[in-house]
Specification:
Two copies of one chain form a homodimer. Chain A is mainly α. The first copy, chain A, has eleven helices and no strands. At the A-B interface, α6, α7, α8, α10 and α11 of A face α6, α7, α8, α10 and α11 of B. Chain A binds a DNA duplex through loops.
Chain lengths: 235, 235
DNA sequence: ACCTGAACACCGTTCAAGT
DNA sequence: ACCTGAACACCGTTCAAGT
């Protein structure tokens, strides 16, 4: 009897939150129906009463994450509203690092994502954007609108960990890599930008994210001011 | 004897190209060591003489794909050189639609990717960029520098396929989705932009990709002309 | 020494047997 | 009617047996 009372009765919501917690703590590769069931103190097949299959479980997890993003503050202009919301999305994704890949690997937009995108479009239209420009802007922002960093370049920092020990901080690039790719090494060495006290710390992710975000937002603002339409390319 | 002569002897190269072909044709989810071995007319364990494990196989496949990207043409200015190369990368990825997710899911940059990034940095530095600006530009371009479309928004087009039959073209959004997300429907309806003959065709992926690419390149060009440094934010 | 079949430790999911 | 253990059809990879 103690075993059956140990936890609240199973529900879709409890399953989804347990799955998110498992992915957060152990990584998405540890998320199996069997592991999840064990975490919940339940037999694996019990999960299938609440989620149809693993894909639907992942969709539900994505909706949980997207639901954590702050709603748009309606008191500011479109640019600040959008900027704040994207940065909020980024903070959410930092708590759930598995989410970007999970979202990209699903081939269907979930209701929560559609709702998020819809209200973002609303921000643009309320800011006076034509439907035409709003459309292209949504494409141009791409997954960055959900806070994705999509740091391909970040991978170069991890490029050296082939050998055994991993001593010290990831300062610049390993010597062998730096020798083969000298120009990568050159800009990596510039990574300790205006923060003087931080040397060989690697990149400031928040700075890089805002740099790219503002580059896009400023360009979008310029097109908007110029009354851009499809017949004229940006520039 | 006929069986043993049926194919060329196994090699790492032959394995990698067979794996790329399998992923291209049947999808990355069909790529298993067992399926790949069968395609090659070989016992599964034979593969392990040439690749250490499946992760190394994926790394090798990524290098094959990245190797198909045109080298930079050295005769133009940085902007056109970069633009052409990114568009070349995009064409390559369109032939290998599994590659973006595969690249993002690997946590280590492969030699071919590092080489690609290194020569791209070289283009920027040769164009007179400071190492500082070149560094942030690489981050801002992100995976788009490898031709990634990262069309999150594209997913909304596929949002309606829950029911059974799938009749006709994906014209705008399904009625139920359009009703719940009216502003998404509004900009989706604007998708048939200046091409008058195409109605309800969905988005022009190439147009959207170049729109975003040029938005970034134009913004980058502006910063470069202004002699941007870390102490001043873009804008 | 080389190759390879069987085996191991997992998966997601089906299905029939048990209550 | 509901729940669930065993089973099925897969994985990637180890390992020992066979040549």
């Amino acid at each position: 009897m103690a075993e059956t009372l140990r936890r609240a009765p199973l529900s879709r919501d409890r399953i989804l939150h347990a799955a998110v917690a498992l992915a957060d703590e152990a990584g998405i590769e540890s998320l199996s129906m069997r592991n999840l069931a064990q975490d919940l103190g339940v037999v694996p097949m019990a999960l299938y009463k609440h989620v149809a299959n693993k894909d639907e479980l992942l969709d539900g997890m994505i909706d949980v994450v997207v639901g954590e993003i702050d709603p748009p503050a309606a008191d500011a202009d479109w640019k600040h509203t959008l900027r704040r919301r994207v940065l909020s999305a980024r903070q959410v994704l930092r708590r759930h690092p598995w989410a970007p890949l999970a979202i990209e690997s699903r081939n269907m937009a979930t209701p929560a994502i559609l709702s998020y995108l819809d209200s973002t479009v609303g921000t643009l239209l309320a800011g006076g954007f034509s439907t035409d420009l709003a459309h292209h802007v949504m494409h141009a922002m791409g997954s960055r609108i959900l806070g994705f960093s999509q740091e391909l370049f970040d991978a170069s920092r991890r490029a050296g960990r082939s050998g055994g020990t991993d001593p010290g901080p990831p300062a610049a690039l390993p010597a062998e890599v730096a020798a083969r790719f000298p120009r990568l090494a050159e800009i990596a060495a510039a990574a300790s930008h205006d923060d003087e006290s931080v040397v060989g710390q690697g990149c400031d992710d928040q700075f890089e994210f805002e740099f790219a975000l503002d580059l896009l937002l400023d360009g979008i603002e310029r097109l908007h001011r110029q009354g851009w339409t499809s017949s004229r390319r940006p520039g």
